[in-house]
Amino acid sequence: MVMVKARAVDGPDKSFREAEIQRRDLDSTDVLIEIKFAGICHSDIHTARGEWGEIQYPLVPGHEIAGIVTDIGSGVTKYKVGDRVGVGCMVDSCGECENCQKGEEQYCLKGNVPTYAGVDKYGEPTQGGYSTHIVVTEGFVVRIPDSIELDAAAPLLCAGITTYSPLNHWNAGPGKKVAVVGLGGLGHMGVKIAHAMGAEVTVLSQTLNKKEDGLAFGAAHYYATQDPKTFEKLAGTFDLIINTVSAQIDINGYLSLLTLDGALVNVGAPPEPMPVHVMSLIGHRRTFAGSMIGGIRETQEMLDFCAEHGIAPSIEVISADDIDDAYERVLASDVKYRFVIDTSTI
After folding, report:
1. Quick check: is 166 in a domain?
2. Hey, how many other C-beta atoms are within 10 angstroms of the C-beta on 103?
3. Nearest CA to 300 among 6, 86, 28?
């Protein structure tokens, strides 16, 4: 076992503190990664504060990890020491079920192993990227293209793939009208990626406060959802709506914006149930769906796509001492658009 520095939280109402955690010795297919940057995701906040269920504390969150390979197991073939790599929201799966065999490990029928707040195959709790090092089996490590800076790469491992996957699955591209609900950490990546795919992109945000940013990211249109006329004007418009908001919204109102056979896909994960009226769906054969992250193959595809199209998240790099403040700023929508921890400050 190796002891490494981390930032941990001891309860839903506790502040982050300095900690030391154990990382396992390398198995033959394991990779040791020196973490350089770790993004802060809204999921980190939900989990750290116990909003998604019971949590075993102390907890080290973080599933947007970018770093450098510093050691490899004897059987590793994909990576070598010095490689630039990333780790996202999962670090293992059964590898045998139908979904894993399809390259959809995120939907493992036995349950994938999350990067933190999970239990690994050794029966040990998983701890995430708010730390200096992590050990991950090579099959759940992805290569970061040289053209993407490591600090910008970190949020791609969650925010990037969480929006890329549904846009890819529902065939966003030329001739498609795509709306992104919310222009936050997820939403701004959705706009950039959908635009690069060739879709006509609209941002649906509560206000017009971020309109200039949204248009700069690639949106062709930007509407305030606080204005009731928005829903009248845009009724029946979109082929695909990606909802990135992790809070209650009027889903039925947004469903009315879909065209025939349109789909509204939820990637934000509010803790409360969201009521849907069936009549909002059946009138125009609309779909209300959900999407998680992508599998490892699709995550690598996303990184290569972002490198090819010059896509990177808009980030604010912070010290580990500022995690608590960053959490409050995320909840207040006071970030443009993703916090990234410089792990050398841990």
Report:
1. yes
2. 12
3. 86
Does residue 95 fall inside a structural domain?
yes
- What are the angstrom distances between the C-alpha of 329 and each of 21, 202, 296, 335? 27, 25, 31, 6
Contact 130, 320 (CB under 8 A): yes
- Tell me phi and psi for residue 128, to 5 degrees: -95, -150
Q: Is 166 helix (H, G, I), strand (E, B) or coil?
A: helix
User: pLDDT tens digit string along 148-207?
Assistant: 999 999 999 999 999 999 999 999 999 999 999 999 999 999 999 999 999 999 999 999
* pLDDT of amino acid 214: 97
Residues 6+ apart with CB under 8 A from 299: 88, 142, 157, 161, 293
Q: 3-state DSSP call for residue 151? A: helix
Tell me, yes or no, whether 12 and 137 share the same domain: yes
The verdict on residue 202 lying in a domain is: yes
Pick the closest to residue 288 from 298, 301, 274 (CA basis).
274
Cα–Cα–Cα angle for 129, 132, 135, rounded to 5 degrees: 70
**pLDDT class for 333, splitting at 50, 70, 90?**
confident
pLDDT per position as a tens digit, 292-326 = 999 999 999 999 999 999 999 999 999 999 999 99
Strand ranges inside 99-152, DSSP E: 113-114, 133-137, 142-143
Residues paired with 339 in a beta bridge? 316
Domain span holding position 180: 159-290
* CA dist., res. 103 & res. 267, Å (int): 20
* The token pair that represents 270 in the structure block: 């509010």
Distance CA(5)–CA(22), nearest Å, equals 9
pTM: 0.94
75 and 133 inside one domain: yes
Average of per-residue pLDDT across 330-334: 90
CA angle 85, 90, 93 (to 5 degrees): 115
The number of beta carbons lying within 10 Å of the beta carbon of residue 68 is: 16
> Would the CA dihedral through 69, 155, 47, 296 be positive or negative?
negative
pLDDT for 274: 83
CA atoms within 13 A on the CB side of 310: 2
> What pLDDT, on the 0 to 100 scale, is given for residue 272?
79
